[in-house]
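tool=predict chain=A
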Amino acid sequence: MKTTIVLFGLLLMSALFLQTNSLTRKTGAAGKPPMFQGSRCFDVDPGIGNPNRDDHYRWAQPIDSTRLMNNLSWKIGILFNCQYVSGDQLARGFGQMSGIIGDYVSNPACFNNDPNVTGRDRGAHEQWARTKTREQVRNNLQWKAVAAMKCLNRDYQLAFFADESAVLARIPSGSGGGGGGGGGATISWEDRGAQGQRGKNGQRFSYNCPPGGRAASSLWGSDIYTDDSSICTAAVHAGVITLASGGTVTIEIRPGQGSYRGSTRYGVTSNNWNEHPGAFVFVR
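tool=predict ok
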């Protein structure tokens, strides 16, 4: 009987130890939430520094629209008041976040009929920010972000909130980019890197296209492109960046299509193609 009781006690202690150890692994030391890059700016809530777009999307699901608007405006204020973020980082981040606003809302009436707000050229927004004070840039971005959400339906509000939140989280690390993924590696204007991701449908990858680019001839499709197309050239064709300014773009891998329609947009011509086994689109 004594042996049985001792064995039972040892088993119970082992189970408690394993349970405690498992909880520690999941939550981090002392049960604290994980810290994300840029967390010196976001000590009030380390989750703001989470660069994962999908996490922000899931968080937003049960939150009403007004709270989402307020949350995004609040986070922008925290970022621009953070001493650890340089003016250069903020200008580049402003350019990326403003470009996303233009991606989602094309009607100037949503912004007091100011057509400049709906521009999608990240570089142009960035240059504007470099001529203004930190406070002016902050106020402009807060106003535009809230105004954009008011003009979007619920589904687009969630996607917009997630894309903006993910970019904002990366600004302190100097890797602001399009929605989702990391800041992205710099690639050439001839790079066809999407074909290396073929089959990873639904996954997102970010790339940095250097300024002063030259359009490549390897481009097939419109809106949805063959995965052997030049990523940077496709981004210009899609209106995400310009040849002059370049910028960070995010693509989402898609299954191959039965056909691809060519067109001429923003001074770049894409070609028609028949069936191809892999494709990509740009995250809006």
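The beta strands are 185-186, 204-209, 221-222, 224-226, 247-257, 264-265, 268-269, 276-282. Residues 57 and 259 are 32 Å apart (CA to CA).
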